[in-house]
Structure formats: structure tokens, C-alpha cells
Amino acid sequence: MSRSNEGAIRGSKTAESTSPSGSDFLQLDLGQAPPGGRTDWLAGRLRAAIADGTLPVGSRLPASRVLAAELRVSRGLVTEAYQRLAETGQVRGRGRGGTVVVAAPPPAAGPTPAPDRGGLVDALRAVPCRIDLSPGVPDLTAFPRTAWLQAERRVLAGLTPADFGYGNPQGAPALRGAVAGWLARNRGIRADPDEVVIVAGVAQALGLLAQVLRQEGVHRVAVEDPGSLGARQQLEYGRLETVPVPVDEAGLDVAGLRASGAGAVLLTPAHQFPTGVVLDGARRRDLLGWAAAGGLVIEDDYDAEHRYDRAPVPALRALLPEAVWYAGSVSKLLAPALRLGWLLVPPRLRDAVTAAKRYADLGNPVLAQLVLARLMDSGELERHLRHVRRRHRRRRDAMLRALGEHLPGARVHGAAAGLHLMVTFDGAGFEDTALASAALALGVKTHPLSWHRVRPGPPGLILGYAAGSAGEIEEGVATLGTALREGLGEGLGEGLRGGPGGPPETGRKVFPDRRQPPGGSRVVRG
Q1: What pTM does this model have?
Q2: Cβ atoms 459, 426 nearer than 8 A
Q3: Sheet holding 220-225, edge to edge
């Protein structure tokens, strides 16, 4: 589900209130309740709805007064059922924010269907919070409104009536030329404008590639593990089988890729999501050798421009253009709402990708394309990049300091670039979904690492720092420390500390600016 309870729990509205109802949506029939056991029955039905995903984490229960009126029972009965869910940790009261689902109960014995993690992510995105440390969001307050408005006025002044018709589904020639120049200057990629296909972000690029891959006879695509849940779901929605391949401190395991039998691989070599590691030189050569022998590489150039401590590594597309399909966007540089990105494919497949784009939406809106082209050609976009890079670095440093102070047992990954940090708790005996739920109950939103992992591993969180102020970051991380100490019970502390012997071994300390931040967090360069 993609909205909080206002949209997710639908039903009739009572005459007394316009609050969202729930008895119809949850199919609550009071006649099924045993005599004298209505409270137990209602609590059980709500608990089952949370367990099967009907009420996902982040959704809101119907107002007790509204549900009581619909069921024609006392409000106290509904309140008591809600209280029982709160006592077992499934829901948490938020005052005027209502009663929010913060954790699913443990699964029953026996086989259960796989959770709809995409629905969980959507629900989490919609739920209100005090501080949002979700990954993947840039500093939206820094959007260059003045520069965009000026560029838009100049573009509009120069348009003819014919320019307001249907455009080229491959993209406006002006933007394709500007993207080619941008990639040459910033990523070392030499591409002709005719090689560029303008898309609605990397998400659409993956959907189009899924169609073309199936036409090419490729049905299995290797993906990084851990890796982007959203990217994996885009490929699976495109009816491709995804095969997880491990990622370590050197990047994707190419030997594991060969063993997977997949004909293509999707990876984020410049700044791997979520670990932050960079595909090293030996792995790059090995991967390019695999591609030269017939494999297809889909390069998602994720966060490549957001490096703080050294120059970006070259794009794979610059090294082997005939075997690398390259995708990028301005979602992390300007704003996801623009839905503007680009795709480079080998020449023999360009017509197939353009046809897929034509039948998807007839092409992106032309006006926004022309404005972005003007920002790229004028140098305004590079000035904006330098500006936000400084802001993001200061916020990254604030998060590192806060982690050192409030999560001294954590291991921090990927500090050298990007808009997020990955934090793991090696040797800890708790579920990261429980920690994320405890933090959400305290008003702080994060992503559990397990959502982005196929194989089991240590618990962890993915923490975005670009969208909040230094003060919000400090408060949010401090709240995570509170959730660790208080939200998960006494057993958590021992697991995090590694028992009586002290902290677990988490590897060497490497700090991005060669200075150790306060506290004991281990920071691994990415």
C-alpha cells in the first residue's frame, strides 16, 4: 500500500465523523465473535490483518470512536483491543496522529508467503514522523528555484507553437545533446546525442530494459546482494528472474556472477547501494572480461556525482560501451519529482528501447526537458552540484559525529560518497526491522537493511542524511540510541555490546577525512 490509513483503510464514513473507517475494509463481522469474547476476537482480527500485510507497518488503525460506531459496540471495547496490540508491540499511539502499526507479530509455524516489501516501503514513506532519515532523498530545500524559473522563462520565450505538440519519444534533441556533454564532462563517457534516450528516471529505464532483454532472450538478471529493493522489483515486475550475487568490500563478486548463469547483471559500481563500496580495479577488469564474452552490464550510476573525499571513478560505460547499458538521472541532484533521466544502450538495441518508450508514454514532457538542457548547457547545474555537495558533506559529518556518540557499537559503511550511510551491528541479537519499528514509534523513520538483502546477514539500518539539518540528524541518531536501549528490551544491550567481553570485532577503522570522529563507531571507507 502506498498511503497511510487515510487511503489504505477504506470503507463507509459514519454520520458522526469523516475519519477513515475500517470495518468494511477489514471485513469485520461482529456476528463471528463468541459471546463474552468480543475484545479478544477484535484484537485477534486486527493482529491477523497486521500479520498478513492488510495493515502494513506504517498504516494507521481506524479511529476508535469511528470503528466502535461501525461495529455498534462501546468505544471502550475497541480501545481495549488496541491496548492489547500496543502491549505486544504491534501498534503505538501517536496522540492526534492516531494509532500506528509499528511491527508485525512473529510468523506462525509453517510456510508463509513472502512479505510484500514494496508495500512496506510505500507505507513507510507515507507515515508521518518527526525526523525522516530514509535514504535516497536529496536536500530538496536546495532546489534551484530561481535558476529553474529563469531558464523556463527563456525557454518559453523561444518556443514556437509547433514545439508544444508531441515530441520525439527518444527525447528532445536539445536535452539529448546536453546530456551527452554532461556525461563527457562529469563521467568520462563519449556518447553521440543519438545514443541517448530520455526516460522518466532510472525506474522507467529498468522497466524498458526488462522488455528489451526479454526480446533478446535474456530472462535471468543478476542483482547485487545487498542491493536496491526498488531496482530488483522493477526487474521482477518486468517478468525477469533476479539472481542475488554477493557484494563484499571490493564490490560485486564476479566469480559469483559467473556461477549464477545470468545473462545480464544490474549493478551500482560507482557507489554501491546500500554498502557504499566502489567496484575495485581487479573486479572491474574481471567484469568487463565477462561482458566482452557475451554478458550484458546494466550500470546504474547511482550517486556517482556525490563524492566528498576523492574524484569519482570512471563509468563502466566509458570503458566498454558496446556491452554496457548506462542509466542515470537528476533525482538525487535536483529532485525526484522531475522524473528526468537518461539511458544509453548499444546501437543495435536503440530502436527497440525507443519503441518501448514510445508505447510507454509517448515521451517525457518537453518543457521540463528543455529547461534541464538549458541548466546543463549554461553551467548552472554544475554550480548547483558544487553547492549541494558542500551541504551534503557537512550533514554527513554531523551524522558521523552523532553515530560515534550515540551508537558506539555500530559499524558505519560508505562514508566517502552518496547521500546515506549504512550502519551494521555485527554480533547483535535483534532484528533490524524491530529496531526500525522502535525508532518509528519514537518518530524517526529509517530503512532496515534486511529489506534490501536476500541472503541473511547482520542487522543494520540505512540512514539518509541529505534531507535534514544537522540538528535533526543529531536528534534522529540520538533517538536511535534510545530505541536501542529502551525500545527492544534488556537483551538488546548485551547483544550490541557483544556480551561481557566488550564490543564485537568490526574491522579496521578508516575515516573519510583521516580524522577519527568522537565515539567508538567503526567507519569503513566506501
Answers
A1: 0.73
A2: no
A3: 196-199, 341-344, 324-329, 296-300, 264-267, 220-225, 241-248, 251-252
Cis ω for the linkage preceding 274 (within 30 of 0): yes
With a CB cutoff of 8 Å and minimum separation 6, the contacts of 71 are 23, 28, 30, 42, 78
Q: What is the C-alpha to C-alpha distance for residues 426 and 441, in angstroms, rounded to an integer? A: 24
Whether the CB-CB separation of 363 and 387 falls below 8 Å is answered with no
For 10, the 3-state DSSP assignment is: coil
DSSP result, 17-32: --SPP-TTTTT--GGG
Chain segment 240-297, per-residue pLDDT in tens: 999 999 999 999 999 999 999 999 999 999 999 999 999 999 999 999 999 999 999 9
Put residue 48 in one of left, alpha, beta given phi > 0 → left and psi -120 to 50 → alpha: alpha
Output the 3-class SS for 87-148: HCCCEEECHHHCEEECCCCCCCCCCCCCCCHHHHHHHHHHCCCCEECCCCCCCHHHCCHHHH
CA–CA distance, 133 with 64 (Å, rounded to integer): 30
Nearest partner of 340 among 145, 193, 200, judged by Cα: 200
The string of pLDDT tens digits covering residues 186-200 is 999 999 999 999 999
Residue with cell 562514508: 415
Mapped onto helix, strand or coil, the DSSP state of residue 167 is: coil
Q: Give the residue from 266, 197, 264, 283 showing the smallest Cα distance to 227.
A: 266
In angstroms, the Cα distances linking 381 to 147, 152, 388, 505 are 9, 14, 11, 43
Q: Please give, one letter per residue, the 3-state secondary structure of 464-524.
A: ECCCCCHHHHHHHHHHHHHHHHHHCCHHHHHHHHCHHHCCCCCCCCCCCCCCCCCCCCEEE
